[in-house]
Amino acid sequence: MKTSFTFFAVLLFISSFSFGQDISKKIDSIIGDNYQKNPDVAISVGFIHNDDEFYTAYGKLSKESPVDINKNSVFEIASITKILTSNLIAQAAIEKKLKLDDYIDSYLPKGYVLQKNLKNKIKISDLASHQSGLPDIDFGKLIELNPQQPVSNVTEKTLTEIINNCGELLDYGKYRYSTVGYTLLGQILEKVYGKTYDAIIHERIIDPLQMTNTFTTEFNVKNRTTGYNPNGGTQEFFKWNITASAGLVKSNAADMISYLKAVLTKGNPIYEAALLTEKICYKDEKREMGLGTNISTDDQNTIYLKSGDSMGQSSIICYNRAKNWGIIILLNQRNSKMRQDLLNKIYEKVLK
Protein backbone atom coordinates (compact mmCIF):
# COMPACT_ATOMS: atom_id res chain seq x y z
CA MET A 1 0.00 0.00 0.00
CA LYS A 2 2.82 2.41 0.86
CA THR A 3 4.50 1.77 -2.50
CA SER A 4 1.24 2.35 -4.36
CA PHE A 5 0.57 5.61 -2.54
CA THR A 6 4.11 6.85 -3.25
CA PHE A 7 3.75 5.95 -6.92
CA PHE A 8 0.43 7.81 -7.10
CA ALA A 9 1.96 10.87 -5.43
CA VAL A 10 4.82 10.90 -7.94
CA LEU A 11 2.38 10.65 -10.85
CA LEU A 12 0.33 13.50 -9.38
CA PHE A 13 3.45 15.69 -9.04
CA ILE A 14 4.53 14.95 -12.63
CA SER A 15 1.04 15.69 -13.92
CA SER A 16 0.88 19.00 -12.00
CA PHE A 17 4.36 19.98 -13.17
CA SER A 18 3.51 19.21 -16.80
CA PHE A 19 0.27 21.17 -16.50
CA GLY A 20 2.17 24.16 -15.14
CA GLN A 21 4.79 23.99 -17.85
CA ASP A 22 2.08 23.82 -20.50
CA ILE A 23 0.41 26.95 -19.09
CA SER A 24 3.69 28.89 -18.98
CA LYS A 25 4.52 27.98 -22.57
CA LYS A 26 1.11 29.11 -23.78
CA ILE A 27 1.30 32.39 -21.88
CA ASP A 28 4.82 33.01 -23.16
CA SER A 29 3.64 32.37 -26.72
CA ILE A 30 0.81 34.90 -26.40
CA ILE A 31 3.08 37.57 -24.87
CA GLY A 32 5.86 36.89 -27.38
CA ASP A 33 3.46 37.17 -30.31
CA ASN A 34 2.15 40.49 -28.99
CA TYR A 35 5.70 41.82 -28.65
CA GLN A 36 6.54 40.83 -32.20
CA LYS A 37 3.58 42.90 -33.39
CA ASN A 38 4.27 45.78 -30.97
CA PRO A 39 8.05 45.91 -30.43
CA ASP A 40 7.93 49.37 -28.83
CA VAL A 41 5.88 48.11 -25.86
CA ALA A 42 7.83 46.17 -23.23
CA ILE A 43 5.85 43.58 -21.27
CA SER A 44 6.52 41.73 -18.03
CA VAL A 45 4.18 38.97 -16.85
CA GLY A 46 4.10 36.86 -13.70
CA PHE A 47 1.84 33.86 -13.17
CA ILE A 48 1.25 31.65 -10.15
CA HIS A 49 -0.59 28.33 -10.03
CA ASN A 50 -0.65 26.52 -6.70
CA ASP A 51 2.95 27.04 -5.51
CA ASP A 52 4.51 27.22 -8.99
CA GLU A 53 5.63 30.59 -10.36
CA PHE A 54 6.25 31.44 -14.02
CA TYR A 55 7.62 34.61 -15.57
CA THR A 56 8.11 35.95 -19.03
CA ALA A 57 9.27 39.36 -20.26
CA TYR A 58 9.91 41.01 -23.63
CA GLY A 59 11.50 44.35 -24.43
CA LYS A 60 14.04 46.78 -22.98
CA LEU A 61 14.00 49.07 -19.96
CA SER A 62 13.56 51.94 -22.43
CA LYS A 63 13.73 52.56 -26.16
CA GLU A 64 17.33 53.69 -25.73
CA SER A 65 18.43 51.00 -23.27
CA PRO A 66 20.25 47.78 -24.26
CA VAL A 67 19.06 46.13 -21.02
CA ASP A 68 16.32 43.51 -21.25
CA ILE A 69 13.49 43.75 -18.76
CA ASN A 70 12.84 40.81 -16.46
CA LYS A 71 10.64 39.83 -13.52
CA ASN A 72 12.41 42.38 -11.29
CA SER A 73 12.03 45.37 -13.62
CA VAL A 74 10.05 48.15 -11.94
CA PHE A 75 6.81 49.50 -13.40
CA GLU A 76 4.09 51.84 -12.16
CA ILE A 77 1.19 49.71 -11.01
CA ALA A 78 -0.83 52.91 -10.55
CA SER A 79 -4.40 52.15 -9.45
CA ILE A 80 -3.56 48.57 -8.54
CA THR A 81 -2.42 50.42 -5.41
CA LYS A 82 -6.13 50.65 -4.58
CA ILE A 83 -6.40 46.89 -4.15
CA LEU A 84 -3.53 47.12 -1.65
CA THR A 85 -5.27 49.99 0.14
CA SER A 86 -8.52 48.05 0.33
CA ASN A 87 -6.61 45.08 1.76
CA LEU A 88 -5.23 47.40 4.46
CA ILE A 89 -8.75 48.65 5.20
CA ALA A 90 -9.93 45.04 5.52
CA GLN A 91 -7.01 44.26 7.84
CA ALA A 92 -8.06 47.21 10.01
CA ALA A 93 -11.64 45.90 10.06
CA ILE A 94 -10.48 42.43 11.11
CA GLU A 95 -8.42 44.03 13.89
CA LYS A 96 -11.56 45.98 14.95
CA LYS A 97 -9.86 49.31 14.32
CA LEU A 98 -12.94 50.19 12.29
CA LYS A 99 -16.11 48.69 10.86
CA LEU A 100 -16.75 48.68 7.12
CA ASP A 101 -20.27 50.02 7.66
CA ASP A 102 -19.07 52.83 9.92
CA TYR A 103 -19.81 56.33 8.66
CA ILE A 104 -16.69 58.21 7.66
CA ASP A 105 -17.49 61.35 9.68
CA SER A 106 -15.46 60.58 12.81
CA TYR A 107 -12.52 59.14 10.85
CA LEU A 108 -11.77 62.20 8.71
CA PRO A 109 -8.96 64.67 9.44
CA LYS A 110 -10.01 67.78 11.39
CA GLY A 111 -9.93 70.05 8.36
CA TYR A 112 -12.89 68.31 6.78
CA VAL A 113 -16.36 69.57 7.72
CA LEU A 114 -19.20 67.65 6.10
CA GLN A 115 -22.28 69.66 5.28
CA LYS A 116 -25.44 68.77 7.22
CA ASN A 117 -27.10 66.54 4.63
CA LEU A 118 -23.85 64.55 4.13
CA LYS A 119 -23.44 63.68 7.80
CA ASN A 120 -23.93 60.01 8.76
CA LYS A 121 -24.44 59.18 5.10
CA ILE A 122 -21.20 57.84 3.58
CA LYS A 123 -19.82 54.54 4.86
CA ILE A 124 -16.23 53.33 4.64
CA SER A 125 -17.40 50.53 2.33
CA ASP A 126 -18.97 53.17 0.05
CA LEU A 127 -15.57 54.79 -0.43
CA ALA A 128 -13.92 51.42 -1.13
CA SER A 129 -16.54 50.36 -3.69
CA HIS A 130 -16.69 53.70 -5.51
CA GLN A 131 -20.28 54.61 -4.62
CA SER A 132 -19.84 57.50 -2.17
CA GLY A 133 -21.24 60.13 -4.53
CA LEU A 134 -18.47 62.58 -3.59
CA PRO A 135 -17.04 64.79 -6.36
CA ASP A 136 -13.66 63.73 -7.70
CA ILE A 137 -10.45 65.34 -8.83
CA ASP A 138 -10.59 66.84 -12.33
CA PHE A 139 -7.67 65.02 -13.95
CA GLY A 140 -8.29 66.74 -17.29
CA LYS A 141 -7.50 70.14 -15.79
CA LEU A 142 -4.56 68.75 -13.82
CA ILE A 143 -3.03 67.30 -16.99
CA GLU A 144 -3.34 70.68 -18.69
CA LEU A 145 -1.50 72.30 -15.79
CA ASN A 146 1.28 69.72 -15.63
CA PRO A 147 1.14 66.84 -18.13
CA GLN A 148 4.16 65.08 -16.58
CA GLN A 149 3.14 65.38 -12.91
CA PRO A 150 -0.60 66.18 -12.79
CA VAL A 151 -1.08 65.02 -9.19
CA SER A 152 1.50 67.56 -8.01
CA ASN A 153 -1.23 70.20 -7.99
CA VAL A 154 -3.46 68.21 -5.64
CA THR A 155 -2.90 69.45 -2.10
CA GLU A 156 -4.51 69.10 1.31
CA LYS A 157 -6.28 72.39 0.60
CA THR A 158 -7.59 71.08 -2.72
CA LEU A 159 -9.10 68.00 -1.09
CA THR A 160 -10.52 69.93 1.86
CA GLU A 161 -12.30 72.30 -0.51
CA ILE A 162 -13.71 69.43 -2.57
CA ILE A 163 -15.18 67.75 0.51
CA ASN A 164 -16.28 70.85 2.43
CA ASN A 165 -17.93 72.48 -0.61
CA CYS A 166 -19.92 69.36 -1.46
CA GLY A 167 -23.59 70.06 -0.65
CA GLU A 168 -25.18 67.07 -2.34
CA LEU A 169 -24.25 63.51 -3.30
CA LEU A 170 -25.78 63.42 -6.77
CA ASP A 171 -25.13 59.74 -7.44
CA TYR A 172 -24.74 58.19 -4.00
CA GLY A 173 -25.14 54.41 -4.20
CA LYS A 174 -24.14 54.30 -7.87
CA TYR A 175 -20.73 53.30 -9.20
CA ARG A 176 -18.39 56.14 -10.16
CA TYR A 177 -14.63 55.60 -10.02
CA SER A 178 -13.10 57.86 -7.39
CA THR A 179 -9.56 58.93 -6.58
CA VAL A 180 -10.89 61.14 -3.78
CA GLY A 181 -12.58 58.11 -2.18
CA TYR A 182 -9.31 56.20 -2.00
CA THR A 183 -7.45 59.26 -0.78
CA LEU A 184 -9.89 59.43 2.14
CA LEU A 185 -9.37 55.72 2.82
CA GLY A 186 -5.63 56.38 3.11
CA GLN A 187 -6.32 59.17 5.61
CA ILE A 188 -8.67 56.89 7.56
CA LEU A 189 -5.89 54.31 7.80
CA GLU A 190 -3.51 56.98 9.05
CA LYS A 191 -5.97 57.97 11.78
CA VAL A 192 -6.70 54.45 13.08
CA TYR A 193 -3.05 53.37 13.06
CA GLY A 194 -1.46 56.70 13.98
CA LYS A 195 1.11 56.35 11.19
CA THR A 196 1.61 57.57 7.64
CA TYR A 197 0.12 55.59 4.77
CA ASP A 198 3.63 54.92 3.54
CA ALA A 199 4.63 53.39 6.88
CA ILE A 200 1.44 51.32 7.05
CA ILE A 201 1.76 49.76 3.60
CA HIS A 202 5.41 48.91 4.27
CA GLU A 203 4.72 47.37 7.66
CA ARG A 204 1.69 45.35 6.59
CA ILE A 205 2.34 44.34 2.99
CA ILE A 206 5.68 45.31 1.45
CA ASP A 207 8.08 44.33 4.25
CA PRO A 208 6.39 41.11 5.48
CA LEU A 209 6.28 39.78 1.92
CA GLN A 210 9.88 40.88 1.27
CA MET A 211 8.81 42.85 -1.79
CA THR A 212 12.32 44.27 -2.18
CA ASN A 213 11.70 45.85 -5.59
CA THR A 214 8.47 47.58 -4.59
CA PHE A 215 8.71 51.31 -3.94
CA THR A 216 6.59 54.16 -2.70
CA THR A 217 8.68 57.34 -2.62
CA GLU A 218 12.28 56.56 -3.57
CA PHE A 219 12.07 54.72 -6.91
CA ASN A 220 15.03 56.00 -8.94
CA VAL A 221 16.56 52.55 -9.31
CA LYS A 222 18.63 51.01 -12.11
CA ASN A 223 16.01 48.40 -13.06
CA ARG A 224 13.21 50.95 -13.50
CA THR A 225 11.42 50.95 -16.83
CA THR A 226 10.67 54.12 -18.77
CA GLY A 227 7.01 54.97 -19.30
CA TYR A 228 5.52 56.10 -22.60
CA ASN A 229 2.23 57.82 -23.32
CA PRO A 230 -0.14 56.48 -26.02
CA ASN A 231 1.67 58.57 -28.64
CA GLY A 232 5.07 57.13 -27.70
CA GLY A 233 6.34 60.16 -25.80
CA THR A 234 8.35 59.70 -22.61
CA GLN A 235 6.29 59.98 -19.45
CA GLU A 236 7.63 60.44 -15.92
CA PHE A 237 6.62 58.16 -13.06
CA PHE A 238 4.11 59.99 -10.86
CA LYS A 239 5.35 61.48 -7.60
CA TRP A 240 2.23 60.99 -5.51
CA ASN A 241 1.63 63.15 -2.45
CA ILE A 242 -1.61 63.36 -0.46
CA THR A 243 -3.41 61.08 -2.94
CA ALA A 244 -0.80 58.32 -2.44
CA SER A 245 -3.27 55.64 -1.35
CA ALA A 246 -4.93 55.85 -4.78
CA GLY A 247 -1.90 55.14 -6.96
CA LEU A 248 1.46 55.42 -5.22
CA VAL A 249 3.10 52.01 -5.68
CA LYS A 250 5.85 51.05 -8.14
CA SER A 251 6.51 47.32 -8.35
CA ASN A 252 7.38 44.38 -10.58
CA ALA A 253 6.14 40.96 -11.62
CA ALA A 254 8.07 39.01 -8.97
CA ASP A 255 6.88 41.14 -6.05
CA MET A 256 3.28 41.21 -7.23
CA ILE A 257 3.37 37.43 -7.47
CA SER A 258 4.51 37.43 -3.84
CA TYR A 259 1.42 39.48 -3.06
CA LEU A 260 -0.82 37.12 -5.03
CA LYS A 261 0.71 34.14 -3.24
CA ALA A 262 -0.20 35.74 0.10
CA VAL A 263 -3.73 36.44 -1.14
CA LEU A 264 -4.17 32.79 -2.17
CA THR A 265 -2.45 31.11 0.81
CA LYS A 266 -4.19 30.55 4.14
CA GLY A 267 -2.63 31.57 7.41
CA ASN A 268 -1.63 35.21 6.95
CA PRO A 269 -3.35 38.60 7.48
CA ILE A 270 -3.31 39.50 3.78
CA TYR A 271 -5.22 36.30 2.90
CA GLU A 272 -7.87 36.94 5.57
CA ALA A 273 -8.24 40.56 4.48
CA ALA A 274 -8.49 39.58 0.79
CA LEU A 275 -11.45 37.32 1.58
CA LEU A 276 -13.20 40.33 3.07
CA THR A 277 -12.44 42.51 0.02
CA GLU A 278 -14.04 39.86 -2.21
CA LYS A 279 -17.49 40.19 -0.62
CA ILE A 280 -19.86 42.02 -2.96
CA CYS A 281 -20.51 45.61 -1.87
CA TYR A 282 -21.98 46.89 -5.11
CA LYS A 283 -23.84 45.31 -8.01
CA ASP A 284 -25.60 46.61 -11.10
CA GLU A 285 -26.23 45.31 -14.61
CA LYS A 286 -22.64 46.06 -15.66
CA ARG A 287 -20.45 45.11 -12.69
CA GLU A 288 -19.95 43.59 -9.29
CA MET A 289 -17.56 45.25 -6.85
CA GLY A 290 -15.98 44.18 -3.61
CA LEU A 291 -13.67 46.52 -1.71
CA GLY A 292 -11.52 47.92 -4.50
CA THR A 293 -11.90 44.63 -6.34
CA ASN A 294 -13.78 44.01 -9.57
CA ILE A 295 -15.56 40.66 -9.59
CA SER A 296 -16.23 38.82 -12.85
CA THR A 297 -18.26 35.61 -12.92
CA ASP A 298 -19.11 33.22 -15.74
CA ASP A 299 -20.55 29.68 -15.74
CA GLN A 300 -17.31 28.13 -14.51
CA ASN A 301 -15.23 30.78 -12.79
CA THR A 302 -15.20 33.75 -10.46
CA ILE A 303 -12.19 35.98 -10.92
CA TYR A 304 -11.09 39.06 -8.99
CA LEU A 305 -9.19 41.78 -10.79
CA LYS A 306 -7.96 45.36 -10.75
CA SER A 307 -6.37 47.39 -13.50
CA GLY A 308 -4.03 50.36 -13.27
CA ASP A 309 -3.17 53.14 -15.72
CA SER A 310 -0.74 55.97 -15.16
CA MET A 311 -0.01 58.49 -17.88
CA GLY A 312 2.78 56.24 -19.18
CA GLN A 313 2.11 52.63 -18.14
CA SER A 314 -0.72 50.09 -17.90
CA SER A 315 -1.13 47.04 -15.70
CA ILE A 316 -3.66 44.49 -14.50
CA ILE A 317 -3.81 41.95 -11.69
CA CYS A 318 -6.22 39.03 -11.69
CA TYR A 319 -6.76 35.84 -9.70
CA ASN A 320 -9.09 32.85 -9.40
CA ARG A 321 -9.31 31.67 -5.80
CA ALA A 322 -11.13 28.42 -6.55
CA LYS A 323 -8.54 27.30 -9.11
CA ASN A 324 -5.64 28.84 -7.18
CA TRP A 325 -4.03 30.90 -9.92
CA GLY A 326 -3.12 34.55 -10.31
CA ILE A 327 -1.51 36.73 -12.95
CA ILE A 328 0.06 40.19 -13.20
CA ILE A 329 0.60 41.95 -16.55
CA LEU A 330 2.78 45.09 -16.75
CA LEU A 331 3.26 47.33 -19.82
CA ASN A 332 5.67 50.25 -20.15
CA GLN A 333 3.15 52.22 -22.23
CA ARG A 334 -0.28 53.54 -21.32
CA ASN A 335 -2.33 51.13 -23.39
CA SER A 336 -5.39 49.87 -21.56
CA LYS A 337 -6.74 48.12 -24.66
CA MET A 338 -3.56 46.06 -25.14
CA ARG A 339 -3.42 45.11 -21.48
CA GLN A 340 -7.09 44.03 -21.48
CA ASP A 341 -6.75 42.18 -24.78
CA LEU A 342 -3.76 40.24 -23.42
CA LEU A 343 -5.63 39.22 -20.28
CA ASN A 344 -8.70 38.22 -22.29
CA LYS A 345 -6.62 36.11 -24.66
CA ILE A 346 -4.71 34.40 -21.85
CA TYR A 347 -7.93 33.72 -19.98
CA GLU A 348 -9.83 32.35 -22.98
CA LYS A 349 -7.02 30.28 -24.46
CA VAL A 350 -5.19 29.12 -21.34
CA LEU A 351 -6.91 29.65 -18.01
CA LYS A 352 -10.64 29.25 -18.60
UniProtKB/TrEMBL annotation:
SUPFAM superfamilies: beta-lactamase/transpeptidase-like (SSF56601). Keywords: Hydrolase, Signal. Residues 1-20 form the signal peptide. It comes from the Bacteria. Pfam families: Beta-lactamase (PF00144). InterPro entries: Beta-lactam-related, Beta-lactam/transpept-like, Beta-lactamase-like_AB/R. Transmembrane segments: none annotated. GO terms for molecular function: hydrolase activity. Residues 43-339 form the Beta-lactamase-related domain. Belongs to the beta-lactamase family. This is Serine hydrolase. It comes from Chryseobacterium pennae.
